[in-house]
Amino acid sequence: MTRPVVVGVDGSPESLAAVDWAAEEAQLRGLPLHIVHAWLWQPLDIPVLQNREAEEESARAVLREAEARVAQRHTGLDVTARIAPDTAVAALVSEARRSALLCLGTRGHGALLGFLLGSYGQQVIATASGPVVSVRAEDDEHLLSRSGDVVVGQQGSAEDSAEVLGFAFEAAAVRGVPLRAVRAWSLPPVYTWSPGSLAMIDDAGGLEPLERKALQEALAPWRERFPDVEVTEHVEIGSAGQVLLDQAASAQLLVVGRRARRAPIGTRIGSAAHAVLHHARCPVAVVPHS
Fold first, then answer.
1. 217: closest CA among 172, 285, 273, 156?
2. CA 47, CA 261: separation in Å to the nearest integer?
3. Phi, psi of 170 (to 5 degrees)
4. Where in the sequence is the signal peptide annotated (predicted)?
5. What is the layout of strands, in order, in the sheet containing 284-289?
6. What structural domains and CATH numbers belong to the chain?
7. Nearest-angstrom CA–CA distance, 211 and 4
8. Cα dihedral sign for 230, 256, 277, 211?
9. 3-state secondary structure of 173
């Protein structure tokens, strides 16, 4: 079964920007596009006049606007649309399970789908089982530009970052653009030093060469799988969020990972993903990994 590119819409300029990007992505990947609007009739227990038919018609109008936008710009693209009778988080997380990727709109420097921290945008990103792409409403020409490269943040071991690198290599391959792999590092705390770790650092010629070796090892199997993708490597000491933002200044897509496990309290997306979701000018793909 072919998994579609899914985009969540709510009628806002942010979600329409996500529709544009998702349609472009579906066309690039040769996948269908599925447009979803979450709407659930919830009668109130207070004396407020409600009109179910009017509200449902408003929900359908949101879908019609998105479908018309795609039809005008992408003739021939296989498009489906539906109202999901559920809350926003439940509907979008459910759609993510059946999609190649899920797209949401973001205002940048603020809210995702109108809400980010502490609300459903963050919950979707933190709990979705597949990649979620955050697309900004600003600078349409920039976000739809295909001239920049794809930037990916690599952390941990080759196994830790396999899903993230796989998504990034595929994104670069379908676009025919270079991939910039970035690994940020910091000095380890003193209590983690041991004779074994010191010997490993010494063998590598220092901390930074050790980090470069880790990045090269993580990239090796993906270079073999995608031989046509030109790859550049960047290793830098510093905050992962800031290093990624600097390297992605002219990128067309930034790919970061988040651990696919729940925190003891609530859900989290990680500091680096949090930083780039707020401040990156290009679309940001957040990919869960083990």
1. 156
2. 42
3. -65, -40
4. none
5. 79-84, 33-38, 5-8, 101-106, 132-136, 284-289, 253-259, 150-153, 179-185, 231-237
6. 5-143 (3.40.50.620), 150-289 (3.40.50.620)
7. 37
8. negative
9. helix
Tell me which H or E stretch contains 104. strand 101-106
**Structure-block tokens of residue 168:** 């990034």
Yes or no: say if 125 and 135 are a contact pair by the CB < 8 Å rule. no
3-state SS, residue 287 = strand
Largest CA-CA distance found in the chain, in angstroms, rounded: 74
Burial 80-111 (b: 16+ CB within 10 A, else e): ebebbebebbebbbbbbeebbbbbbbbbbeeb
Directed axis angle between helix 13-29 and helix 162-175, to 10°? 80
pLDDT digits (tens, 9 = 90+) for 149-203: 999 999 988 999 999 999 999 999 999 999 999 999 876 554 444 455 545 544 5
Show the tokens assigned to 189.
């705390």
What residues are paired with 180 via a beta bridge?
151, 232
